[in-house]
């Protein structure tokens, strides 16, 4: 799958001038409120007809303003999931799912309903109406309905934004299964860094209608020089590893990274499972001697690669710990006091790590 997007469009005083390429998986459109994420996904959906540009999916030209090509929304065969589930209130869950299937084009075989129901864990809800579902359940049904229309691309615009933290946590594992077990490419709009760190393969970082960085999630979320549009307090490292072992009494998982081991609170992931860890840079401290008597479980030794100063007096230090790179966000004063410089050996003390199944 290849998706090429390159659009320019004026909306009142706002100018969208954005493009990216995706070769499948989950592409996150990420940025602050008002950066243009929704406008861009609406252009991909066919809800906005761009002033200029092209959108091409697998060689199929959906928009080319120079050639006056504009394939209307209903002929693009995309699935949509919005902030609110927008289910039909008078239909049961089963009825809503059948409606999705009804939209699958003739000759296309959508995922079987049983498989989608199982994937999203909604089997026990089939006879209920939307009014009797939680927000998270409604959203899972909306995703199921979209999947059953055999979409070529799934567009999700802040699908978790209307849910409370508990419901978000409940639905994220289903989104991960969707990413890992279906072949449907996803464009996912979010302003929440932990969601993007957890779900995305590629990130398109937007600011003021422009794309300011694009690339693999681990690069975009951690590279301070590229992150001009991103709230630097949100920066962090995204590392891949596998679950090496468990310590059930302490509910801790041991994650083997490229050259380090991390201890992470978690008890639901199988041994050998590939995982991602997200380490916010603000939760990493640096020491020039190995600290003793600390409650932190994870202390990695490494060497400083770069130090980038911000205008707010903070600095982001990139530390290579063998083959794993960790970023620490510390004060400029600490940098001076510890005489931190590129090449200097340091210990990275990691306060929190989030573990995500992969
Ligand atoms: N139809 C319109 N006419 C004029 N301005 C518009 C229109 N639609 C959107 N805008 C403006 O375009 C800018 C980008 O909006 P957009 O919804 O794409 O951003 P966003 O990144 O998705 O933000 P949020 O996360 O808050 O949804 C905003 O300043 C918005 O006010």
Which short descriptors sum up this protein?
single chain, 358 residues, alpha+beta, Rossmann fold, OB fold (Dihydrolipoamide Acetyltransferase, E2P), six-stranded mixed sheet, five-stranded antiparallel sheet, globular, binds adenosine-5'-triphosphate, Molybdate transport system ATP-binding protein, nucleotide-binding
- How are the strands of the biggest sheet laid out side by side? 7-8-9-3-10-11
Q: What best-fitting shape do the alpha-carbon axes yield?
A: globular
Radius of gyration: 22 Å
Give helix % range. Answer: 10-25%
CATH-defined topology of the largest domain: Rossmann fold
CATH architecture of the largest domain: 3-Layer(aba) Sandwich
Quick one: biggest sheet?
6 strands, mixed
Bound molecules: adenosine-5'-triphosphate
Number of domains: 2
The end-to-end span amounts to 21 Å
């Amino acid at each position: 799958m290849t998706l090429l997007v390159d659009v320019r469009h004026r909306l009142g005083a706002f100018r969208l001038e954005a493009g990216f390429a995706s070769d499948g998986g989950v592409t996150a459109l990420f940025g602050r409120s008002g950066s243009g994420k929704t406008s861009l996904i609406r252009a991909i959906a066919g809800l906005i007809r761009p002033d200029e540009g092209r959108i091409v999916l697998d060689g199929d030209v959906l928009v080319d303003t120079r050639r006056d090509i504009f394939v209307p929304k209903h002929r693009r065969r995309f699935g949509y999931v919005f902030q609110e589930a927008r289910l039909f209130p008078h239909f049961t869950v089963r009825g809503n799912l059948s409606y999705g299937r009804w939209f699958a084009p003739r000759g296309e075989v959508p995922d079987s309903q049983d498989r989608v129901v199982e994937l999203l864990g909604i089997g026990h809800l089939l006879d209920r109406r939307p009014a009797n579902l939680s927000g998270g359940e409604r959203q899972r049904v909306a995703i199921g309905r979209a999947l059953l229309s055999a979409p070529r691309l799934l567009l999700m615009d802040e699908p978790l934004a209307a849910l409370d933290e508990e419901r978000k946590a409940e639905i994220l594992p289903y989104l991960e299964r969707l990413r890992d077990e279906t072949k449907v490419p996803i464009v996912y709009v979010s302003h929440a860094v932990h969601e993007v760190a957890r779900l995305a393969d590629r990130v398109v970082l937007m600011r003021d209608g422009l794309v300011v960085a694009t690339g693999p999630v681990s690069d975009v979320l951690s590279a301070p020089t590229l992150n001009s549009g991103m709230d630097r307090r949100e920066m962090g490292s995204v590392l891949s590893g596998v679950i090496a072992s468990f310590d059930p009494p302490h509910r801790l998982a041991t994650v083997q990274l490229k050259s380090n081991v991390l201890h992470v609170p978690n008890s639901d992931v199988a041994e050998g499972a590939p995982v991602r860890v997200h380490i916010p840079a603000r939760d990493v401290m640096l020491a020039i001697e190995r600290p003793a008597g600390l409650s932190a479980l994870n202390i990695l030794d490494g060497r400083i690669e770069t130090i980038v100063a911000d205008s707010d007096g903070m600095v982001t230090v990139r530390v290579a710990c063998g083959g794993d790179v960790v970023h620490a966000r510390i004060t400029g004063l600490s940098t001076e006091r510890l005489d931190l410089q590129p090449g200097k050996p340091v210990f990275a003390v990691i306060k929190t790590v989030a573990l995500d199944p992969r």
